[in-house]
Backbone:
């Protein structure tokens, strides 16, 4: 297996393009104004991105991660943390193929964003793909999840603290589990929103929201689908 490992501890750095099969690409950035780009074409590739703000927390710091994988059985793990500037951080992940994964194997390395206003934008095209985090709050402090899936037998599970989720799925036998919570530092001016659109058959959608003001819209077109929305107010 070939490996590419990059560690960056300065400002405004970017890295990582890989073409082949069975590669590892790791980018670790500490400081301000990060940009990380990874492109992998082939099968059984792995991408790891960690972006952390430095010791100072100036207003306007940002982290951007852009990952593209084309092939089967590829894997992405993302961790963006401690960015509190007015400019939000973004993670853009595109996977084309089957049996691809965006997740972590345990709570310590699950995909994670904890900066205010972060965006996770994921597009998956294929079958048996997985987007899942085992962290209690995969996205904290009013983050945004945008997910588009084209395919069947895909599995999505995510937890947000004061989250905004927009999920669009075209295909059959997909499972979506979304938890949106108020968090420890409760702020009644913040709320959870979920918009799930599904076109296909035998899909299962579960949305759970905890806050004073929740909003969930689930629109399903197809046969033998199941949708459950649970809302709890303080």
Residues:
């Amino acid at each position: 297996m070939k490996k590419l490992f990059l560690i960056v501890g300065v400002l405004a750095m970017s890295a990582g393009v890989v073409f082949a099969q069975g590669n590892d690409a790791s980018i670790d950035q500490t400081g301000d104004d990060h940009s990380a780009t990874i492109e992998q074409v082939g099968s059984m590739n792995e991408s790891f991105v960690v972006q952390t703000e430095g010791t100072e927390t100036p207003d306007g710091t940002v982290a951007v991660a852009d990952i593209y994988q084309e092939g089967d059985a590829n894997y992405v793990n993302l961790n963006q943390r401690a960015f509190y500037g007015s400019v939000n951080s973004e993670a853009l992940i595109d996977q084309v193929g089957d049996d691809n994964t965006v997740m972590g194997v345990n709570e310590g390395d699950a995909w994670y964003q904890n900066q205010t206003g972060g965006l996770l934008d994921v597009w998956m095209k294929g079958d048996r793909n997985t987007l899942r985090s085992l962290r209690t709050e995969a996205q904290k402090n009013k983050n945004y999840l945008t997910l588009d899936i084209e395919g069947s037998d895909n599995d999505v599970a995510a937890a947000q603290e004061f989250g905004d989720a927009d999920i669009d799925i075209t295909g059959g036998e997909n499972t979506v589990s979304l938890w949106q919570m108020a968090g420890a530092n409760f702020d009644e001016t913040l709320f959870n929103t979920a918009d799930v659109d599904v076109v296909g058959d035998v899909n299962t959608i579960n949305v759970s929201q905890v806050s004073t003001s929740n909003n969930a819209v689930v629109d399903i077109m197809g046969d033998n689908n199941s949708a459950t929305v649970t809302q709890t107010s303080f």
